[in-house]
Amino acid sequence: MRWIAINRFAPAPPAVIVHDHRTIARALAPGLPVTLLSPPGFVLYAGAPWWRALLEQASFTGYSLLDCGDAAGRALEALRIGLRGVILSAETVIFDQIAAIARETDADLWHAAPPAFDATANSDDAELRHWLIGPALAGAGLTRAKN
Fold this sequence. Notes:
This protein has about 150 residues and is an alpha/beta fold. It has a single domain, classed as Aldolase class I (TIM Barrel), CATH 3.20.20.70. Helix content is about 35%, strand content about 15%. The protein has six helices and seven strands. It has a seven-stranded mixed β-sheet, with helices on one face. α4 runs parallel beside α5 (about 90-105). The chain is globular.
């Protein structure tokens, strides 16, 4: 599986899969740069407005990605409500059409999710912190935890 970002010029901070307010708070607790990533296909059962509300209620202004699976219509909805990071695993023709719209809205469209730490599946805060500091302190002898 390839993961590319259309319109993304700088690398995104390490990703953490979050499911709710509790896992968002946990991902933000270390105070390190983070990409909040929805679970796979999240838009299909929770919706883009709910994801946006989760981010707003957490006062999160950093980088986030909403996984829309192969639902192009839901990806389009996410872009239209102002989300700036969307994952769409649709066919190339459809992906390219949505990518054109993402460019118009200055949003990032990813073909697949980046490697991520799942804040629900793994409750070890030390491992979460290690995941988040991996790239920032690679020169200091620390490495990113395996996904």
